[in-house]
Every structure is written in structure tokens, then in C-alpha cells.
Specification:
single chain, 463 residues, mainly alpha, Serine Threonine Protein Phosphatase 5, Tetratricopeptide repeat, 2 domains, two-stranded antiparallel sheet, 2 strands, globular
């Protein structure tokens, strides 16, 4: 039943979020005191999917997009709550900083973190670490601070330290997995999530995220085995049903494939969300008129449906109706002003109209929000090439090659730039590389104008 679908896409969380399972754990620090950890993990329900990196993976079959929902038991938590709250921080007895004990510093840091006062929280936890460099709780909470700032490198560094100090605390490993997950590094996220699920087999959070990581890595059988136990609590969720159905079909589990497909239609009904799903299906299948018709139906019921105008703008972009595309994309930005993919496609539309100033502005904003967007880097490189800003163009193309080594377009553009710079031999090598990579590519190329259907909800935070 799901044989016609491809390019699974997890999108915005709709519904209840909550603190993951994890409870409390205690560790013994170097000073011999016990460190109690109550884990309230940071932004744990934000889900991600593979972003467009220039490598287009397509089939001619129909595809639909995905609205991921994780329903968890327990009360809702503010994103990036504190990770640890010790009854005793476990520092050297009698140590104080500025007249405050480490316990007082820790509580002050936790309070600041819960109130989203990140600079104050960071200072407090750094003071705790200055007294006791083996304070797992302080390192874990610093990880939360960096996660909230989307400073992934520092977050991994301090969370790894916390994990070494408190390896039995599964919640720290869950946050490590989330750091990778939010960067769309699903392969690296698998090991931390697997370890959490081994320790806490009833964790909905870890199971769902691990299942999605298997899914995005095309490990279909493992995705099915991981996600299927959630049927009892997730079978109302059409997005879960979609993921499970795709994985079941790819794994040859026909009965489960048909069961999930039937349930998806039953749950979706005539809701605006389901019209949006169907519209996205047509969009992926290059049936733009049918896609617009479905988007219109969704708009009748819910004109503020998240990212409706974005996908409608993409349909017009495919039709080369650039004015309509720009209108819809700007309408989406009025609702969601911080979505990199929208600026990326807006830049594409302006470029098609040869409005380079507007295109440059859009591509720059897209890259400010998400420096990993290959399409924006390529679009900006083309503009710099026209402006004869060759060094800037080459720098962008170098970044594209690092992000997406399989993207042969970068070699073609680099050849053009080098040719204009008079470096004919280097240009010839780039053109030959481009031709070889293009001929060897196994996947079908996407449409030259729009490429793979992007997934703007990657950057959406839980509501």
C-alpha cells in the first residue's frame, strides 16, 4: 500500500510534549559525596530529517510528507529545562566562591536555566566546575545551555564529559543523541539512542527517535522492529503510520504495510493536515496542479496551517509562475520568519527572474539561519560568479564540496569560475570531474529549478 511513497519527511510537532522517561540517578564524585541527578532533558521532542545537501534521491513514485508527533506521558516541559538538580553537588567540603557554597551556586544556576537566563546559568555552573571539575551535573546542564543556543560543538563536548563522569545516567546519552539528531547526523545519533533504549526499554522518546534514525538511514527492518511496539499509543498519529508503513513496505512486511496504510486513511479523513499530506504527495510526483488543488482545500479549513504557503509556493515555483511563488513564500515568512528553506526557495525564484539583488539577500539570510544549505551556497556562488567576485564564489563552492561531496554541480561552477579567471587547465579538470560524477550518478536528478522538496519544519521548535 505504501509502494508509491518516497522521501519520508518529518515535520512540525503538533500536540503534547513532555519530559522523557529517565527519573533520577545518583553517581559518586571524586569527593566521595553522592550526586543526585533529576533529568529534564532539553528540547527532547524536536525531530529532524535529512536536509537537502545537493544529493537528490528520488523515485518516480508518489511521495508524501510527514508531520511528526511524539505523544509522551507526563506534564509538558519548557524546552531546555535544566538537566540535573543535585541534593548535593558533590564538591570539596567547605569550598565556596564569592561567599556561595557550590550547592547554592548549583541551585542558582538551575533556577536561571529554568527562567531561560542562559548567561547567568552558564556562569553559575562554570563556578561549580571551578570548585569541582568532576561535577557531572554541572557539565550536563552546560550541555543544555549550549543546546538551547544551538551551539552543537560545545554541547557535545560538555555532554561527553558528563557522560564519562556519570555513564549510568541514560538521560545524558539521550541529549547526546539529540545533538546529533538536530544536526541531521542520524547515523551518529543511533548509538546513543540505542544505549538509552537498552537501559530504558519503555522510553517512548528514545524508541521513536531511534526508529526514525533507522528510517532515515534506510535500515527498514530495524525501523519496523523499533517503531511497531508503539502502535498502541501512536496508531492515531498519521505521521507515525506513514513512517511505519513506508518502512514495512521497504522491509517486505506486507501485512503491516497494508494495516498502516488503511489506518492512515482512516485517521486522516478529510482533515486539512491530510489534504496537506496529499498535496505534498502530488508535489513530489510533479503533479503541481493537483498539489495546488489539495493545498486550496487545506486552506479552506485552516488558512494558517503551518507551512501551507511554503508548499504552495513550491508548486508555483515548479510551474515557473515566479510571481505567485514569491507571493506564497513571503506569506509563509509572515507567519514563520526564521525558516531557512523559505528564504532558500525565495532566492531561487528571484534568481529565475534575474533579480540578483533580491536573490542575494534571500540566499544570505538562508545561510545565516542554516549554513549547511547547499542550494543557497550554490545560488550565491552563481551570483558572485556573475559579479566577478571569484574568490567569494570559490570559497562557497569549497564549502559545498565539504558538505556534499557527491554534488557534481559544484565542480561545474568551479570550472566556470576558473575559466573566467584564466586558469584553463584547472577548469578543464573540474569539467572532467563534473562529467564523470554526473555519468556515474545512480540517482535520478531532480528538477533543475527546484531540486529535492525541502523540509522547512526542520528548524521549527515545539509549540
Amino acid at each position: 500500500m505504501f509502494s508509491g511513497f518516497c522521501n519520508p519527511t518529518p515535520l512540525r510537532l503538533w500536540g503534547k510534549t513532555g519530559a522523557p522517561e529517565g527519573g533520577g540517578a545518583s553517581v559518586v564524585n571524586s569527593g566521595g559525596c553522592r550526586l543526585e541527578l533529576r533529568l529534564l532533558l532539553a528540547d527532547t521532542t524536536t525531530l529532524r530529517n535529512p536536509r537537502q545537501l545537493g544529493e537528490v534521491v528520488r523515485t518516480a513514485s508518489l511521495a508524501i510528507f510527514l508531520l511528526i508527533l511524539i505523544a509522551l506521558d507526563g506534564s509538558a516541559q519548557t524546552p531546555a529545562s535544566s538537566v540535573a538538580h543535585p541534593s548535593k553537588v558533590g564538591t570539596q567540603r567547605g569550598s565556596r566562591v564569592g561567599g556561595q557554597s557550590p550547592q547554592q551556586l548549583f541551585v542558582a544556576g538551575e533556577t536561571a536555566l529554568r527562567n531561560n537566563q542562559l548567561p547567568q546559568a552558564e556562569r553559575a555552573f562554570r563556578k561549580v566546575i571551578a570548585i569541582d571539575p568532576r561535577s557531572a551535573g554541572a557539565y550536563a546542564n552546560l550541555g543544555v545551555i549550549y543546546m538551547r543556543r544551538k551551539e552543537w560543538g560545545p554541547a557535545i563536548e560538555v555532554l561527553r564529559k558528563a557522560d564519562r563522569l556519570a555513564p549510568q545516567v541514560a538521560g545524558i546519552r539521550l541529549n547526546i543523541g539529540l545533538v546529533y539528531y538536530r544536526q541531521n547526523d542520524f547515523q551518529s545519533a543511533i548509538a546513543p539512542f540505542e544505549s538509552v533504549l537498552r537501559d530504558q526499554p519503555n522510553s517512548t522518546q528514545a524508541r521513536y527517535l531511534l526508529g526514525l534514525c533507522y528510517f532515515f538511514n534506510q535500515r527498514w527492518g530495524e525501523a519496523v522492529d523499533t517503531l511497531q511496539p508503539l502502535w498502541g499509543e501512536q496508531s492515531y498519529n498519521m505521521n507515525y503510520l506513514y513512517v511505519l508503513g513506508i518502512a514495512a513496505h521497504k522491509a517486505g512486511r506486507t501485512e503491516l504495510d497494508e494495516r498502516a496504510s488503511s489506518r492512515l486513511v482512516e485517521v486522516g479523513g478529510g482533515t486539512p493536515e491530510f489534504h496537506l499530506i496529499k498535496g505534498r504527495a502530488h508535489l513530489n510526483n510533479q503533479e503541481d496542479e493537483k498539489a495546488i488543488a489539495e493545498f486550496d482545500e487545506a486552506e479552506k479549513s485552516d488558512p494558517k496551517l503551518p507551512f501551507l504557503h511554503f508548499y504552495k509556493g513550491l508548486a508555483y515555483l515548479h510551474k515557473q509562475d515566479y510571481e505567485s511563488a514569491i507571493r506564497e513564500l513571503n506569506a509563509d515568512l509572515a507567519v514563520n520568519p526564521d525558516v531557512a528553506f523559505t528564504y532558500d526557495k525565495l532566492g531561487t525564484a528571484y534568481s529565475a527572474q534575474e533579480k540578483d539583488a533580491e536573490a542575494e539577500k534571500s540566499f544570505r539570510e538562508a545561510l545565516r539561519l542554516d549554513p549547511r544549505l547547499v542550494n543557497s551556497s550554490l545560488g550565491l556562488a552563481r551570483i558572485y560568479q556573475k559579479q566577478e567576485k571569484f574568490s567569494q564564489a570559490l570559497a562557497l563552492l569549497d564549502s559545498v564540496e565539504k558538505l556534499s561531496p557527491q554534488d557534481y554541480t559544484a565542480h561545474y561552477l568551479r570550472g566556470q569560475v576558473l575559466q573566467k579567471m584564466g586558469q584553463r587547465e584547472r577548469a578543464r579538470v573540474e569539467f572532467e570531474t563534473y562529467t564523470r560524477m554526473m555519468n556515474d550518478a545512480r540517482e535520478k536528478r531532480g528538477r533543475e529549478l527546484s531540486g529535492e522538496i525541502p523540509n522547512p519544519d526542520l528548524t521549527a521548535e515545539p509549540q
